[in-house]
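Subject: two folds for Thursday's group meeting

Dear M.,

Sorry for the delay on this. The cluster queue was jammed most of the week, so I only got both jobs back this morning. I'm pasting them in the order they finished. Each block is the input sequence followed by the predicted structure tokens. Could you check whether the formatting survives your parser before we put anything on slides? The first protein is the one we discussed after the seminar.
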Amino acid sequence: MASNRPAPEAPFVPSQRDTETFGYGTYSTDEGPWTEWNPTEESLPPVRGRHRVAKQRGGLARGGLARSSTVLGVGVIAAVGAGGMASAQTGKPPVSISMPDLPNVGSLISDDSDAAEDSTTALSTVSVAAADTEESTADAGEVLRARIMAQAEQQQDQVESKAAAEAVAEAEKAAADAAAKAEQEAEAKAAAAKKKAEEEAAQKAEAARLAELAKQFALPTSSYTVTSTFGQAGSLWSSGYHTGLDFAAPTGTLIKAVHTGTITQAGWDGSYGYKTVLTLDDGTEIWYAHQSSISVSVGQKVNTGDVIGRVGATGNVTGAHLHLEVHTDGSGSGIDPMAWLRSKGLNP
């Protein structure tokens, strides 16, 4: 640091001092006498440690010290300027004032201040780090919470989607079952209608056939009453049951040929009385028994409705009637005459 040259001393006269220079209303006796301060290299305290420049990063301690150093320098300059102004106003000769080379503002801050700054910085860093850690922990918790909530929502969506899919599948199955059932019912109705139509058609066809047969077949007598049917049990018959169909009618009622055929038997036959046998072209035999008289002979050809005899009460009987039996080829004891007549379109 360069030293200043010594300046000549200026006399001090209190009565001539401008009281308005420093803003005082009156002169104070405790001020002065003033002597000139000429800082030298020996009078300045040595600067310890390395020179540092105050960092303007904020903070109360560092900012306060930096501003204090700046104010100190400005105050010194203001004081020097005020002294020159006072000399000019009082008419005194100018006083030569020399200023030493001042160190940087940062050098006025001692190592202790630097240590305090470092300590403050360290504490601030720790606080910021703690705050950052706390904020990071809070953020991690929020992230975890958000992730859990998202997973829960996803699972809920999956459950709802599965339930909806099951409901849709169940509805589709129910609809398919209903459609299948409706189709089955429709098919059953169609089949029933078809069957009914076929049955009706068959019945009509059978009725037409029977009508044609009825023209070819005839009932064996008229003015009658059916008194005994085929298979009826009783002691009146030697076999224990009735083997034909009985038409009760007055004696002498005409007996007719049921169909075209040939007379193969005509005469007395024990318990049958007078009996006539008519053999049809297909080999079926029609037996007429208990006649009072016979009007045909063996080998005679007859047509449907021709008279072959009369009703009587000959043989094993209890009254006048026509006993009619039907024997098909190889039938033995015969078949039900009622069913056979109906199959030919006749209704006894």
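Second protein, same layout:
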Amino acid sequence: MSERDFFLAAYDVSRPSRLAAALKLVRAYATGGQKSVHEVFLTPAERGDLLHDMAMILDEEEDRFLLLRLDPRARVYTLGKAQAPSDPDLFYLG
């Protein structure tokens, strides 16, 4: 299995049809998230595919998309009822 990096994917989309398409696309890669911010683990190829496909959906004059790579050395903190992943090295995409 290829090495995956941890990203936050966030978007601000003005039209409902594009918003639905952006949500569907990001959720195909997401392991968690809320509203328009999602946690994604991506290989370099998946990262390229996500950026390309999102560029095809969004209007660059009206919409925004941010894919932020997080530091892999950072410690995971949980608040409230959240629990750390029981197997953080294995994620199923499909």
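Two things I noticed about the second structure. The chain has a mean pLDDT of 84. The helical segments are 16-27, 44-57.

Cheers,
T.
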